[in-house]
Amino acid sequence: MSYVDDAFYEKLLAAFADWQRPELELTDLAIREQCRALLEREARLLDQGRYPDWLALYAPECVVWVPAAAAPGDPRREVSVFFDDRPRLEDRIFRLGTGAAWSQVPPSRTVRLVSNVEPFRTDERTVLMVRSNFLLSEFRAGESRVLSGWCGHRLRRRQVGWEIEAKQINLLERDQPLRNPSVLF
Amino acid sequence: MNISTFSDLSLDWDALVREDRVHRSLYTDPRIFELEMTRVFGAVWVYLAHESQVPKNDDFVTARLGLRPIIVVRDSQGELRALFNRCTHRGARVCRAERGAARTFQCPYHGWTYFNSGRLRGVPWPEGYACDFKDGSFNLAQVPRVESYRGFIFGTMNPDAPALSDYLGGAKKPIDEWLDRNPGSRVLVCEANRLKFRGNWKLAYDNAADGYHVVFSHRSLLETENRHAADPSKGMSFYIGKPDEAPMYVQSFGRGHHFKDKRPNVARRPGALWEMEGVQPGMQRYEALIRSRLGDRAARALDLAASEPVNINIFPNLSILGNHIQVFQPVSVEETDSLWYATAIVDEADELAGMADAVNAIRMRTQESFPNFGEVDDAANFEEIQKGLAACEDEWVYMHRGLGVPGRVQTLPDGSLKAPATDEIFMREHMKEWKRLMSARPNLVVKR
């Protein structure tokens, strides 16, 4: 059951508006290291195709948002490359498992490099926003290519570690024609 | 066996385009692609943009007519124009932005400046020139004929082309119906899912009304949409089993336009379309909201958030399908952009009692579904065709499904042809038109 409604969108838009402010930069090395470890684990699970394990990093009510607009606006009024709540992420994973998702037959081999990990404080003591850069090197059907961009992760502290509430993937080419955007970002 | 080579066939269009098949070179030969940019994309009306992208005077959006870089602008007097985005002086693109508002365009290279009507405003240091810049010969070139049909802006380089309305012909009826189902009988074009594939543009147009590929190319989509359903009933499930016995049909209008009408598969009552929609982010909570506000009238609103089951294909580069306006943009003989512009409803008369925003909130998510879970697989198959066609001795690409089978094709009173959903008659018809165009030498002109 989808939990997405106006309140969800509004909270998301507020969380992703003007969050990379100098006064919110978090320099605590231990926290920074925790964020980096989480993002590296996420990249590894995606590269290894361990999608259920990857999805387990996410909060029950999560979103993975790949905007299509050069300057992302309100997803209620514009389409994204994708805007996936948990049921849709489960659908995406299911589709890849059907063996008939021809855009992923043969599947892509990927390696993701994650760097420039910078956490930022938010109004909530247990919530962080994290900016990171990525290079996604993809090999499929005899060809290699690189996609790149930056991500914003919204993380909430749990009893053990952090949970991803939202991830915004800002592809460099997001407003240009994309060839076979069928891997999970 | 006598295997003819391309050089034997040369550019003999009758040899390359047969009744039941076409030669592989239509998809692979750069010489043919180059000719298409004038004989097809120059000679007929080509879709450029939608009026909702340029609502006010001075608004512009860039586009391409074939490979020609174009600025579609509503000039300062309100006239729609399609300017060549090419400085008259040295050829640089004068406008580098993809959209915006401008009364003038100044070439960044040497500073020549043009009004948004295309007229040359001035050049730096004119005393260094002996010519008269006021005689119009240095104005921006522009597409000589630009017309719009209910918001869809087309242009053609061909002064001898019929009026746009006549060109669209029988395809106007489904376009009208597609628009008229929305409040105010119109849509607003918004962001797009932009895709590209390494293949010829015609692979996408050949696919546009193809009912034969659905259960194969889109098996993963059908399985995904129906994974929580007891019986397959979501999305395009009506293709499962015996699609040619379903009430849907394909219709060919001539001039290369065709229509895949899947609406007859849907019960004729408000809400039936919504019930077929797959699971989309936000649908349950917005549905609850819309039902609580609109009561009996909710079903019609929810249908507007669901994907309209039609494919209206206007040769050579436009497909109106679901709620999308899809544009096929040739890049090279083996590269094509496929732009899926999303549309929103606009409810100025408040027919939906304030629920238009909620409808659009679902409608954006339903429109992301097919590009993500359907089109990527078609594009993978288009790319595999392009790779397969490297086998040069195996020369033919077939489109003969339905050909010669008695009783399959019906000629309707308006002259259009109607056939079962998986019939390839629509491909044969647009290839006939393609051959007619490629065999002619249109007299193409620019206006200044």
Give a structural overview.
The complex is a heterodimer of chains A (185) and B (448). Chain A has helices spanning 6-15, 29-47, 51-55, 86-96, and strands at 58-67, 80-85, 109-121, 127-140, 143-157, 162-171, 178-179. Chain A has 185 residues and is an alpha+beta fold. Chain A has a 6-stranded mixed sheet with strand order 2-1-6-5-4-3. In chain A, a hairpin with a 4-residue loop joins strand 5 (143-157) and strand 6 (162-171). Chain B has 448 residues and is an alpha+beta fold. Chain B has 2 domains: 46-149, Rieske [2Fe-2S] iron-sulphur domain (Rieske Iron-sulfur Protein, 3-layer Sandwich); 186-434, Naphthalene 1,2-dioxygenase Alpha Subunit, Chain A, domain 1, CATH 3.90.380.10. Chain B is built from 14 helices and 21 strands. Chain B has helices spanning 6-9, 13-16, 25-28, 30-39, 164-168, 172-180, 201-207, 214-217, 219-225, 272-276, 283-294, 298-305, 356-388, 425-439, and strands at residues 21-23, 46-50, 59-65, 68-74, 80-84, 99-101, 104-106, 113-115, 120-122, 145-149, 152-156, 187-197, 249-254, 257-261, 310-314, 318-321, 324-332, 335-345, 396-398, 410-411, 417-419. In chain B, the strands form 5 sheets. Chain B has a 9-stranded antiparallel sheet with strand order 12-18-17-16-15-14-13-21-20, with helices on both faces. Chain B has a 4-stranded antiparallel sheet with strand order 5-4-3-6, with no helix packed on it. Classes of the chains: A alpha+beta (185), B alpha+beta (448). Chains A and B meet through helix 1, strand 2, helix 4 and strand 7 of A and strand 12, helix 9, helix 11, strand 18 and helix 13 of B.
